[in-house]
Amino acid sequence: MIVVIAVVATGAGLHVAAYFIEHNARISLLATVFSVAVPVGVLGMLYAGYRYLAASDRRAVPGT
Length: 64
Hints:
With 64 residues, this protein is mostly helical. It has helices at 2-21, 29-60.
């Protein structure tokens, strides 16, 4: 469920960035950058955690 939330938040951040580029946003550049960077960072951390857990599972099985 958290992956879906992070993907939706990334899309919303990209939408905010598009508004900022069109000069229709009322927020600063820093807020625009964070609206994209934070959800992408969450996705990256989830992926890194998955890779770590999947790799440790493969090491635990003998013969693989």
